[in-house]
Amino acid sequence: MFPVARAAQSLVARGIQHTAVRQAHRKHQPTFHDKYGAMVLLGGATMFTAVWGYVFTQLKIEWGFSPVGRITPK
Q1: CA dihedral 7, 8, 10, 16 (to 10 degrees)
Q2: pLDDT, tens digit, for every residue of 3-48?
Q3: Among its keywords, does the record have Membrane (predicted)?
Q4: Dist CA 23 CA 31 (whole Å)
Q5: How large is the average pLDDT for residues 50-54?
Q6: Engineering a disulfide at 30: which of 12, 25, 34, 37 sits with its beta carbon 3.0 to 4.6 angstroms away?
Q7: Class of the 1-59 domain?
Q8: 17: left (phi > 0), else alpha (psi -120 to 50), else beta?
């Protein structure tokens, strides 16, 4: 390996090691996504299912193969 490439590689490796050590010593505080991520995802999935469930069951739309002139609300 060329001396310049070896020096560049060691600098990059040293920088990565330094960053890893610095992050390992820092206390991890939960973010909004850590605290509420699953709840927000489940709430969104519930709303999605409820809205489309209403659309498919209550709006009485006649669904045809071609939407041009065939989808007519009653």
Answers
A1: 160
A2: 777 777 776 777 777 777 766 666 678 888 888 999 999 999 999 9
A3: yes
A4: 16
A5: 92
A6: 34
A7: few secondary structures
A8: alpha
